[in-house]
Amino acid sequence: MTRALRFAVLGPVRAWHGEDELPLGSPQQRAVLAALLLREGGAATVDQLIDAVWGAEPPPAARATVRTYVSRLRQVLVADGEPLLGSTAGLYRLRVEPGALDVAAFADLVAQAREVRQQGDAATAADRLRAAAAMWQGEPLNGVPGPYAEVQRARLERVRQLAAEERLTLDIEIGRHTAAMAELTALVEEQPFDEGLRRLLMLALYQAGRPSAAIAQYHEIRTLLADELGLDPGAALQELYQQVLVADPTLAAPAAPAATAPPAVTAPAVVAAPPHQLPADITDFTGRAALLAELTDALGAERDTGSAPAIGLTGLPGVGTSALAIHVAHRLRDRFPDGQLYADLRGGRGAQVDPAAVLGRFLRAFGVEPAAVPEDLHERAALWRSIADGRRVLVVLDHVQSADQVRHLVPVGSRCATVLTADRRLPGVAGVAWRTVPVFDADESLDLLRRVAGDERIAAELDAARRFAAACSHVPVAVRVAAERLLARPMWSVAEIEDRLRVEIRQPVPLHADCDLVEAPLERRYDDLDPQTAQAFCLASLADGADVTAADVAGLAGLPLPEAERLMEELVDAHFVEPVAYRRYRYHSLIRWFARRKAALQLGRTIAEASLDALHPAVPARRLVLGRSRLTTLAHRHSA
């Protein structure tokens, strides 16, 4: 029976024979099929198909090409041994059984919804429209070229929107305003000038107990219409605005249906127990006084309007951006009584935590039942924005990997705030003010040594302690690890451990297990570099002297100067080197040690040992010259 063939256009153009999807060929061939599926009676002439695929400028062989497409489709679209695509009287005709095309089934469900609505059953009508909406699989005719597909896409999208507006109107009418509010928020973002959608959102917000948000929606569209089109809102929108202002009792929300309402995107109006997800604070957090004061003022200031503050922290590996973010969040807990959320966005090597999963955790933290969390990322984001709006919520997003990862996680409510940490600045995250966290100054390093190893011990050997901290490049994680080594060896003097540390940082491999704690953040960030940038990171560390130039790197790596400069600027963005002048860069000694260890592993021990000698203060500095041929030979030897 021919009903065994099914067709879809509410998304990519697809066809199935039973459960088996059929191969429909190239995008142009699918355009021919789409034209036949959507034309009245499934019929079209060759010229109409040519026009559908190419418009006014068809290729010379268009007629023969269309016939080839039709022939291929005829071979594929077969039911019960009979081709469904035939030709009569100059027409190609495709036979499609009733209900076998998704757009026809969609239209049938919409018609059923309107019929039961006229009979007074609004809840059933809304459910029929919800079933119709579930048939869509993205943009209609997705990937299909040609002017006919463009026209049909616009028509189908409008049909989809009208059905969505009907469904959302019914949802509000029967008391499902919370679910409607989440979806309407997303739709209004996509179509900010649509007064019908804006009116529905205002009504949903009002019925959810948020009249101020409803009023804000009116002011937003009034400003948009005036600034962009020179128009005022229409009469229906103005009337609703006046009703909201006077709390018109006719706008009151009806009771939501108890059992018939599906839990698709419902959310609680209040949360009995606000979430407190921050990791434990660092009890001996040290330094950063000026930066802490700046962050506290920027994030914790009282505000009822405007955008939510968001601050991003970045810096070299081990500088303590996560510790700083968590510490400042703990200081601000009392200013965000509605909740503090935390998400670590670092996945495994080369992986990112899915923002949809994080949104799911946020929604559940605010009382949304797991079954009520929407599947779609954008619907989750819309519901999250609705829940956060008006609440005082602090969000900490740690180890952010990309702008796309956090775009939907940052709340927009003016009473919320966000702290992000990332390996580098992410300009794609709108509204974030970035701060580069520096290494400790000498006094901060000494303060941490005192807190961990003991004040008396450091005071007794203050000069050695200063050298000890300097050998750690004043990088907080390195200073802490070194201080804990001091604490574990009370019989050793600070000077003795400082000497051992200076010997250790000259070695191609670490001599002590706690070096892993220092190397871990360096390794993670190194793994994120692309291979060419990683090689430049290693090679640049082999140049003698405090600084390295782009010309040095070009000579070491055998690259054109502009390419060497590009790679070094990548390392600047990753906080592996610091720019000190035009095309001139500098490593912290700890970073240089790590880079030369990597060079030893990748390019051969001979190069590394020669270069590591130059780090020791007792060895006179000498110029390290590497011929390109020698470098290439060593690289080949290592890869072998």
Description:
The protein is of the alpha/beta class and 640 residues long. It folds into 5 domains: 173 residues, Winged helix-like DNA-binding domain superfamily/Winged helix DNA-binding domain (Arc Repressor Mutant, subunit A), CATH 1.10.10.10; 76 residues, Tetratricopeptide repeat domain (Serine Threonine Protein Phosphatase 5, Tetratricopeptide repeat, Alpha Horseshoe); 148 residues, Rossmann fold (3-Layer(aba) Sandwich); 63 residues; 119 residues, Winged helix-like DNA-binding domain superfamily/Winged helix DNA-binding domain (Arc Repressor Mutant, subunit A, Orthogonal Bundle). The protein contains 27 helices and 16 strands. The strands form 5 sheets. It has a 5-stranded parallel β-sheet, sandwiched between helices. Strands 1-2-3 form a 3-stranded antiparallel β-sheet, with no helix packed on it. InterPro entries: AfsR-DnrI-RedD_regulator, BTAD, OmpR/PhoB-type_DNA-bd, P-loop_NTPase, Sig_transdc_resp-reg_C-effctor, TPR-like_helical_dom_sf, WH-like_DNA-bd_sf.
Summarize the structure.
The protein has 640 residues and is α/β, with parallel strands linked by helices.
Reconstruct the topology from this structure:
Elements: E1 5-8, E2 14-17, E3 20-21, H1 27-38, E4 43-44, H2 46-54, H3 62-76, E5 78-79, E6 82-83, E7 85-88, E8 91-94, H4 102-118, H5 122-133, H6 147-173, H7 177-190, H8 195-207, H9 211-229, H10 235-245, H11 289-300, E9 310-314, H12 321-331, E10 340-344, H13 355-365, H14 377-388, E11 394-400, H15 403-406, E12 417-422, E13 432-436, H16 442-453, H17 455-460, H18 462-471, H19 476-488, H20 494-504, H21 515-527, H22 531-540, E14 547-549, H23 550-557, H24 561-573, E15 578-581, E16 584-586, H25 589-603, H26 605-613, H27 628-639
Parallel strand pairs: 9-12, 9-13, 10-11, 11-12
Antiparallel strand pairs: 1-2, 2-3, 4-8, 5-6, 7-8, 14-16, 15-16
Helix pairs in contact: 1-2, 1-3, 2-3, 4-5, 5-6, 6-7, 6-8, 7-8, 7-14, 8-9, 8-10, 9-10, 13-14, 16-18, 16-19, 18-20, 22-23, 22-24, 22-25, 23-24, 25-26
